[in-house]
Amino acid sequence: MDFVGRRKVWFLISGILIISGIISILLTGMNVGIDFKGGTILHYDIGENFDNSQVRHILNQFDLKDNEVKKAGEDKQEVIIRTRVLSQSEKAEIFNAFKAKWPNTQSIRMEEVDPIIGGELRNAALVALVIAAIGMIIYITLRFEFKFAVTAIIAVLHDALVVLSFFALLKIPVNAPFVAAILTVIGYSINDTIVVYDRIRENLKLMHRASLENIVNSSIIQTLTRSINTSLTTLIVITILYILGGETIKDFALALIVGILAGTYSSIFIASPLWVMWKKTERGIL
Amino acid sequence: MNTKNILKLLIILTMIAALGYVSINGLKIGEYKVIPVKEGINLGLDLQGGVYVLLEAQENEGQTVTNEKMMGAVEVIRGRVDELGVAEPIIARQGEKRIRVELPGVKDTEKALSIIGQTASLRFVGPDKSVVLTGNDVKDARAIYGPNNEPMVSLKLNPEGKDKFAEATEKFLGQRIAIYLDERIISAPVVESVITAGEAVIEGLPNIDKAGELAMLIRAGALPVDLTIKEIRAVGPSLGADSLERSLNAGQIGLILVLLYMIAYYRLPGLIANFALILYIIIVLMIFVGLRATLTLPGVAGLILSIGMAVDANVIIFERIKEELKNGKTLRASIDSGFARAFRAILDANVTTLIAAGVLFYLGSGPIRGFAVTLSIGILVSMFTAIVVTKYMLKLLVNAKIATNIKLYGA
User: Fold this and answer.
1) Is A252 on the interface with B (CB under 8 A)?
2) Are B309 and A226 a contacting pair, CB within 8 Å?
3) Which DSSP string corresponds to B292-351?
4) Under an 8 A CB cutoff, do A226 and B358 touch?
5) Which of A90, A173, B32, B399 could in theory staple to B5 by disulfide, Cβ–Cβ 3.0 to 4.6 A?
6) Does B312 touch chain A (CB under 8 A)?
7) What's the pTM?
8) What topology does it adopt in the membrane (chain A) (predicted)?
9) What is the pLDDT of residues A212-230, one digit of tens each?
10) Backbone angles phi, psi at B166, to 5 degrees
11) Computed from CA positions of residues B263, A246, B236, A31, in that sequence, does the dihedral angle turn out positive or negative?
12) Which residues does B22 contact at the CB level (< 8 Å), separation at least 6?
């Protein structure tokens, strides 16, 4: 199979995915969660059936018009409200108002993040990622070569963007668990790419007469069973976690599923063809 | 057949099985007791429920935040938390101006929040509305019984407070000094004598419980710095526990499927890898217990990734062994060269990931750190189990000559 020769097809597929994600972000924005933006999440178990409009009616009394109201729980008797940062007394009053309307109301979760903290978390994560990328580039350059390092990082970036696009398109809120998921995807993707590159490194010596395309194509085929088996076993665990796991873990598992698929795809269809393209400029035959 | 190798292999397999049994069920021999791993691991608030609060000290005019004040504030909060009676609270400085409070398993989140989040300012106000003392002047407040067995609160003032109070009690002798917590008057005792010793009592309390409560409020109000809440997370224990229980079940089912897949695809080596994988999970969890680490959701992410990498290491090795077998090498030679060839890929992939994990650990905070820790532990252990344990067991198996058909090795 000609993985390298059809690279335009693969690049196009990834490009469409990522660009549609970016367009979606530009048009409607990311659904940035309170972890990054600041705000409050109130999660009540109302204990009986209710309408979102009733909830909004109560919130309107507190001058909270611009907020998100979502039903949750197995019986749809829970409500999750996302809104701005509230004062202690506001929170107490809102809770009391719910209690007055639905006496069995219980608060089962409350999260509140100051906008400054949210911004700090985002910046710290970004700085850490940039430095981690530099560290990885240095190591891969030492063990392989610079071109392997850069293309591996591009593949990682690709996977992160795919997951981000996916979240943007589906309007899933981006919160702290999302960062953990992105980090996991990055770890997975780099691991996956290195194994393919290791084979290319080996075959460069064994097949020194063959063309780069041939070397890379056979390296990919030789590692394909491994790529499939590893992705499959990891996906089994995460898919079950998605289906059976608790409410708090669902979005996280979903991000991992998308990311691992992207990670496997990018090692084969993005990183390796990119490396061939770049490598050929060295010999002046692009 | 080679009994010595078979015996060795059986001993290893039995040991892993026994370790697995003990980590799930615990062990009790006389006085000596090993608790199940599940009970030994601290779970983060996102997994088991509880209250998390991040407080930040405010710089007010003429009031700088010093290290001393922050340490004092931590102590005050520790005191407040102790009043709540939480089993294993975490009260820690975070950076220069922040204090992190974690109260695992707290059920009454409202109460916990109101006590920790009490950013109250304590003021003693004279009849002319002048502020006599503030919380900064009070060193300690305790509920005590007076000479006639009546409940009261005794106050100890610091040197500054002592002077101010002596002056004020002289000025307002016979009048009332009101004690405000925020905008609420919590007591308004009459000054009966000039107090110069830096100690005072508040009388007129209905019972010792009320006295205790007032003392606590005063201590709580005596924060050396103003703290504001920057982040609160209160997860009801039912939600956390439910989520954890379901996720644990899901994890178990997922793991069993992976083990089955490994056997189906890689046959005998797959079975060996499964034992190595189980050993890997036991070691990682034991390190967790040993480090007293707290497992959070991002930590779980790190674990899943490292399990994936542990499986991957075995898959890489077995694929290589299969290739060598197809090239016509003997079983022993295939295993040796398969491991040798796989080693470089495993090493480079893991070291690269380890570098990233190390950077995330040093630069990251909170959730990112948790991820980095579980990932790093997982990578190191997975390299050990895949390269050392799997290899050793496979060699014993081959040397035992009980399974010589290369079909059993997936070829």
Assistant:
1) yes
2) no
3) TPEE-HHHHHHHHHHHHHHHHHHHHHHHHHHHHHHTT--HHHHHHHHHHHHHHHHHHHHH
4) no
5) B399
6) yes
7) 0.78
8) Multi-pass membrane protein
9) 999 999 999 999 999 999 9
10) -60, -45
11) positive
12) B34
